[in-house]
Amino acid sequence: MEELFRISYPVAAADYTSAGKASTDIKRRLKQLGVSGDVLRRVAVASYEVELNLVIHSLGGELTLTVFPDAAQLVSADVGPGIPDLEMAMREGYSTANDEARSLGFGAGMGLPNMKRNADEFSITSEKGVGTTITMLFRLQ
Amino acid sequence: MTIADMVNILNAKVLRGADKLDTPVYTACCSDLMSDVLAFVDEKTVLITGLTNPHVVRTSEMLDLKCLVFVRGKIPTEDILDNADEQGLVVITSKLTAFSACGLLYDAGLRGVPVPTAWDAEE
Ligand SMILES: Nc1ncnc2c1ncn2[C@@H]1O[C@H](COP(=O)(O)OP(=O)(O)OP(=O)(O)O)[C@@H](O)[C@H]1O
Ligand SMILES: [Mg+2]
């Protein structure tokens, strides 16, 4: 598929103040490209959830938006620590979030299931000690 | 009702978005758990909360919410308010507790956003 646009955002671990800035920019750019309504909102929510997870749970990573003529793709790739039990992590209510994340209103264990619900296609791979990669596709038409 | 009606009912102070008070509102949600708000709210609604960190505004932004209501007279910092302004969010603050604010708004006709409960999966 022909790539129209691609941009990557580095996301630092434990940077709670900046968390969400990449998603704000992603939403703004998609809007400029004419994406709107339900799909824009689904991309924005999934992007914010995955970005927050990078900040809260990972050792740092990168969020990449790629826009195709009929779809938008979000890829989150981090450098660890990896998720030991993916099935458990995908369950609603499972969370290992620390007190700081919880004090900000996160850590309910809703993020991964919410990403899966919002994306048209969702895949996650993770290796302990190596890192986690999440790929989400959103159809634009 | 409109946001202006909410301001009256809650005896609230308008912090940002004074030009958008005629926006109609039909539903609201009340939560300090942004995880839940992100997972369950899927309409342009009102968020009543006691949390004033930047993520309350970012959550509202991702969900295209119409209005943020802070309770117990809480006011976020100026940069958080300016960020809300940039997103076109109306921000108001009321001295009432969350419970009282919700009760008064419900009484005046506002309803909760429809959300699935943890029980739905079992039924
Ligand atoms: N990038 C990641 N690296 C390592 N662990 C992760 C990563 N993303 C998620 N996890 C693990 O999966 C769990 C579930 O993630 P999920 O996003 O569903 O919930 P949460 O982030 O804990 O809470 P919420 O998203 O509701 O604020 C996390 O608590 C964490 O243990
Ligand atoms: Mg999460």
Structural account:
The complex is a heterodimer of chains A (141) and B (123). Chain A is an alpha+beta fold and 141 residues long. Chain A has one domain (5-139): Heat Shock Protein 90 (2-Layer Sandwich), CATH 3.30.565.10. Chain A is 35% helix and 28% strand. Chain A has helices spanning 21-32, 37-57, 86-89, 99-103, 111-118; strands at 5-11, 61-68, 71-78, 121-127, 131-139. Chain A has a five-stranded antiparallel β-sheet with strand order 1-2-3-5-4, covered by helices on one side. In chain A, strand 4 (121-127) and strand 5 form a beta hairpin. In chain A, helix 1 (21-32) packs antiparallel against helix 2 (37-57) and helix 2 packs antiparallel against helix 5. Chain A is globular, with a radius of gyration of 14 Å. The mean pLDDT of chain A is 97. Helices cover 34% and strands 18% of the residues of chain B. With 123 residues, chain B is of the alpha/beta class. In chain B, helix 3 (54-62) runs parallel beside helix 4 (78-86). Chain B has one domain: Udp-n-acetylmuramoylalanyl-d-glutamate--2,6- Diaminopimelate Ligase, Chain: A, domain 1 (3-Layer(aba) Sandwich), CATH 3.40.1390. The longest helix of chain B is centred in the last third of the chain and has 10 residues, at 98-107. In chain B, 41% of the residues are buried. At the A-B interface, helix 1, helix 2 and helix 5 of A face helix 2 and helix 3 of B. Bound molecules: adenosine-5'-triphosphate and magnesium ion (MG). Residues 49, 52-53, 111 of chain A line the site of magnesium ion (MG).
